[in-house]
Amino acid sequence: SDFHLDERQLSEKLGVSRTPIREAIAKLESEGIVITVPRRGVFVHRKSKKELIDIVTVWAGLEGYAAHLIIKNSKKEEIESLNKYCQYTKQNVLSDLDNYSNDNIKFHEQIMKLTKVKLMSEILESQLIHLQYLRKKFIIQSDRSLKSIDEHSEIVKLLVAGQAVKAEKLLKNHALTLVEKIEESIQS
Fold first, then answer.
1. Are 172 and 61 in contact (CB under 8 A)?
2. Residue 30 CB: number of other CB atoms within 10 A?
3. Fold designation for 3-44
4. In a designed cystine with 60, which of 34, 38, 79, 175 is the match (CB 3.0 to 4.6 A)?
């Protein structure tokens, strides 16, 4: 079941009036993170398996198309800056999964920023919150993190080389591996 948010408790706990709490709740509701149920209150909305798969599917499509826009709109040096998120080895990934997971998310945010299409970044950002927990959960599993690093490096190489079609395919497939993980591990 969804987690209930109590405006009054949040206000007291944070030492602020209820106005900023209401504003924050309205923002969270617009992003699909909470839902308001009349006469019952505000609840954190847990996305269904179908909703999560839909989010990843849209994200995969956007990231795939991003390859073409990045090659068209970004300088080679900007694209190469993505390499800073690919500097992990087996040892430092396994010893620092939190930092790797955060850099993994930054890599995907940067992919969208390099398109120079602000709306694409905003769409991804608004949906990424729903995927962050899942990405962290699955990145820990087996060799997924190492495969992800290799894929990130290959994506950067393809983008730098101007190979939009190959980069698009790899970006889509990279994102869609999350769908497989969702299918395997989340109940409806």
1. yes
2. 10
3. Arc Repressor Mutant, subunit A (1.10.10)
4. 175
Asked if residues 53 and 183 have their Cβ atoms less than 8 Å apart, the reply is yes
Question: What pLDDT digit, counting tens, does each position of 12-68 carry?
Answer: 999 999 999 999 999 888 888 888 999 898 998 888 889 889 999 999 999 999 999
| CB contact at 8 A, 35 and 46 | no
- Please give the order of strands across the beta sheet that includes 3-5: 3-5, 41-44, 34-37
The pTM of the whole model exceeds 0.85: no
**Rounded CA separation 78/167 (Å):** 16
d(CA 22, CA 24): 5
pLDDT in tens, 112-141: 999 999 999 888 888 877 777 676 667 666
CB of 63 closer than 8 Å to CB of 112: yes
Which two three-digit tokens encode residue 153?
A: 């490096």
Among all chains, which residue has been given the structure tokens 């504003």? 23
* CB atoms closer than 10 angstroms to residue 164: 19
Task: Give the single-character DSSP code of 33.
Answer: S
Q: Under a CB-based contact definition with an 8 Å cutoff, are residues 121 and 110 in contact?
A: no
Contact call for residues 104 and 85 (beta carbons, < 8 A):
yes
